[in-house]
Amino acid sequence: MRRKWIFWLAAFAALALLQATLRGLIGPYNYQIVILVGINIILAVSLNLINGVTGQFSIGHAGFYAVGAYASASLVYYGGPEIRPLIAFLPPFAQNAVLLLLGLLAGAILAGLAGLAVGIPSLRLRGDYLAIVTLGFGEIIRVLILNVDAIGGSRGFAGIPQISNFFWVYLAVIITVVTVHNLVNSSYGRAFISIRDDEVAAEAMGVDTTRFKVLSFVISSMFAGVAGGLFGHYTSFLHPNSFLFTTSFYLIIMIVVGGLGSIEGAILGAVLVTVLLEVLREFGPYRLVNFAVLLVLIMIYRPQGLLGSWTLFKRPKAAAG
Amino acid sequence: METFLQQLINGISQGSAYALIALGYTMVYGVLRLINFAHSDVYMFGAFMGFYLANARWLQSSLGTSVAAAVVVMLGAMALSAGLGILIERFAYRPGRGPARFTPAFWFGILGAAFGHLTGETVASTALGAGAGVVLGVIVEKAGLRPVPQHSRLALLIIAIGVSLFLENGGQQAFGADPKFFPPIIATTVLPVGPLIIDSQRLVVLGVSVALMVLLEVIVNYTKTGKAMRAVSFNLDAAKLMGINTDRIIAFTFALGSALAAAGGILVSLLYPRIDPLMGVMPGLKAFVAAVLGGIGNIPGAMLGGLILGLAEVMAVGYGQSTYRDAIAFIILVLILLLKPAGIMGKGAVEKV
Description:
Shape of chain A: globular
Largest interface: A-B, 50 and 60 residues
Structural class of chain B: mainly alpha
CATH architecture of the largest domain in chain B: Orthogonal Bundle
Shape of chain B: globular
Number of domains of chain B: 2
Helix content of chain A: over 70%
Oligomer: heterodimer
Largest sheet of chain B: 2 strands, antiparallel
Strand content of chain A: under 5%
Strand order of the largest sheet of chain B: 1-4
Number of helices of chain A: 11
Structural class of chain A: mainly alpha
Order of helices and strands of chain A: HHHHEHHHHEHHH
Helix content of chain B: over 70%
Strand content of chain B: under 5%
CATH class of the largest domain in chain B: Mainly Alpha
């Protein structure tokens, strides 16, 4: 118990210290990349829970990311002026923190509900059929957002309060990683893994496969929602085109390149892909051409991903998908 | 009623174009169990090849704007795209199945060419870069760093996404990112049939698509190669044991699918002449949806799926829901898969314990 407190205190102190100094140390451009890396880590680790750990191939993560982003942004944008007077006794930074947390909560809940709504019907499907239906749902969500005028529609949602920063993004990263890690190592995690490894056998052993599949899907969506909220409150502008199915593809690339099924792999993949896409700006117009070729080469030489099923922390052995 | 009939005609021609692209997805899925995301970009490539052929001076001077010229444009683009399909299969997907020589040389050559073009901006520097890349690739391969066979299906999928990204962005470099306009290679005449207006383009689209689909059915069902394709699709390993050269059949399948996609690209460009390197993304995705709708791996299913999708989309737009156009395909997909989890004509896999 005490070790836990020390861990969280140290994490808080380190994050606060970095928050105060980081931008000055590495400049605004790198700072932005660091933020983006953090958001992608949350997305990749959460996507890994459904794709890598539970073995249900979903390529609609961008949809839940979008739901979270828009839900959180609208709550703070429309509800903020109402809530602020109620908490006026707090200093401004604490007011922002309360608003952000409320927004993220709304984002997580709505994204989780969206996950539930998508998961219950689609998780009856298998393999590629599931993949294309999740992709379809992601696109449906995007088109719906495109048609709601109150949140900007096709013009984009501008003027979102800029209240998320390094501290909050990386606090969320730590919470996500710790939660997913503990979850995978719990009885729930073993149920998830058993579904991935052999659904029929899992069912025969008494695992309620539908329930666990939906559960994994909902949890995964909730974290994507949090990532969305953090993203919207950092960029202060959202556009439906940020949530195209290509965004889901990039997330899949991250977890597969890193090594499917391992949290470390998802983190490595998120960092690597995000940073690589920035570094390749050197190549100007050939940035994505080179990225694509590197991607093909990595997959040809390391089909199991860079880390494979290697893990840093001890944990039940995971088979490569 | 008149609007309805008019939309019906538009929908059928739109749908037959979707069906042509969907066939490529479904055939490749049949033999490799792979969602070939690069297929949508082969469609784009086909349209661009048609564009360059139609604007080629030697063709215009010898044939002018005649039916013969249109046929040459069509067949030329189909042949070039078939070549691209074989290339993709050979250097991106085959390394996952077994030894595929010169794979690193191919990709290193592309990287080298990009680097050479970036530093020198001349043909010579590009060629030099490509040459250096190829040599490096051969050395790497000789040194024993060979691609790992036994790819998981997921690795293949990521490779497909990579190839798709490559073609889209490579296309922006090769063809230019700005949209181009496909020349009207077929004279437009408007045929009034009663109160309806049918323009000749739509008839050509419909006629050519149907003809190609019939041709495909003949190839698949009544030729030896077609029989081999069906065998590979039924069970790749067993087909190999029966002495079928599976690599050749898979390459042939890619060529066939790519040629159909190119035909689809040109036909759609007759209706909507604006072409750009990203034009394949949405139609490609919808064609894939059409393939899944019909039951992926099933050739008549892909045709049916394409038709349903085209009709639904045109109807929805015609009756005033155009802002939801891109969602309609997916809504139909979700509804149908909920009722028939393996698509309309697909066979559900039996769970073996």
